[in-house]
Design goal:
By secondary structure, this protein is α/β, with parallel strands linked by helices. It has one domain: 3-Layer(aba) Sandwich (Rossmann fold), CATH 3.40.50. It has five helices and four strands. Strands 2-1-3-4 form a four-stranded parallel beta sheet.
């Protein structure tokens, strides 16, 4: 099984959604975890939009990056520029991918506008995870392993 860590700034939204999709859609292929530059708690709106697609992330916990754990990963995927730039160095054998996804947390406007942005981020992340799983399924992850 491929060990994958998703990183973003606060480990509250994008990386939590990615972890949830990877756990659900990548059963048997991916051992998923997530972390952030800081732990900001799992965002309630992220929980709501994930529940809308049948995935419960309410039991996931927001964590700060653990450099020792990071070094045990096969793949590290950053979902924002902050995490990409500030993520601790990873050994060369740890594959790094960057999937920039606009953060919905700072959205200003009506509740409908804000939720639309959370859904956009969720759907964008789902498509990326599905593509990633497609690659893993095709080669059983051998091209991404250490």
């Amino acid at each position: 099984m491929l060990k994958v860590m998703f990183l973003c700034t606060g480990n509250s939204c994008r990386s939590q959604m990615a972890e949830g999709f990877a756990r659900d859609l990548g059963k048997g292929l991916i051992e998923a975890s997530s972390a952030g530059l800081m732990a900001a708690g799992v965002h309630p709106r992220a929980m709501v939009v994930m529940r809308e697609v049948g995935i419960d992330i309410s039991r996931q916990r927001s964590r700060e990056i653990d450099p020792d754990l990071l070094r045990t990963m096969d793949v590290v995927i950053t979902l924002c520029g902050n995490a990409e730039e500030a993520c601790p160095r990873t050994p060369p054998e740890v594959k790094r991918l960057h999937w920039p996804v606009k953060d919905p947390v700072g959205t200003i406007g009506t509740e409908e506008t804000i939720m639309r942005e959370f859904r956009r981020a969720r759907d964008e992340i789902r498509v990326k995870i599905q593509g990633f799983i497609g690659v893993l399924s095709a080669d059983r992850g051998e091209g991404l392993k250490k």
